[in-house]
Amino acid sequence: RNFSIIEIGFTTTVIPKALANLALGKKTISLMGCLTQSFLYFMLGTTEFLLLAIMSFDRYVAICKPLHYVAIMNSQVCSLLAITAWIGGAVLTLSPTLVYFQMPFCGSNIINHFFCDSTPMIELKCGNTKVLECMILISAVFTLLGSLAITAVSYINIITAVVKIPAVAGRQKAFSTCASHLTVVSIMYGSCIFMYLTQTNRLDLSKVVSILNTVVSPLLNPFIYSVRNTQFQEALRESIKWSIVISKH
User: Transmembrane region positions (predicted)?
Assistant: First the structure.
């Protein structure tokens, strides 16, 4: 539920305004609207990475400690972890946003992007922006690499445990449990590490990768997580069958 809420909010923060600008040809946004969009975008994105790390830990417990799963991942622990992810996302995003808000503008009000991303917004500021850039980098490194480290450690332990399972069917079942999560993790981490942890000024390429995060990934995630669901598979087969029937007529 938390992951679904984040995905809906993540997309809603950027896409409606971008579509409105394309439809109306009026590519403008207020200062407060831009700051709000930027804060929500990065807060929800940070929360999503923390939640993905928590989900990897959940899979580690399910596969490596199945008999203790109910005791370890009880409802209280799950609620606490989810709240921690939301609070962590807000705290890690709030400090750079407050520093940005206090810095003066240089006069230009043109953002070279389809939403209020950090890099083109920093270019509008006067004076020394090194402190702000450093804060953003530290927040990105802590969020991306910190949560990635938790995910990596969890899956190293999972793979080690799965390899020891003697039955082939048991190994396949264990790996299929993690397949959807690993796919989402690969898409999210790969695109964001490319954008925010590599020194590049190729804004056009950054825009393309941003579309992957804001449009493609949220669109694919429901299918990725539902592909193993029996009802989803049956509905997909029925849809394909009806499409073939309609195309013949």
Answer: 39-57, 69-92, 136-162, 174-197
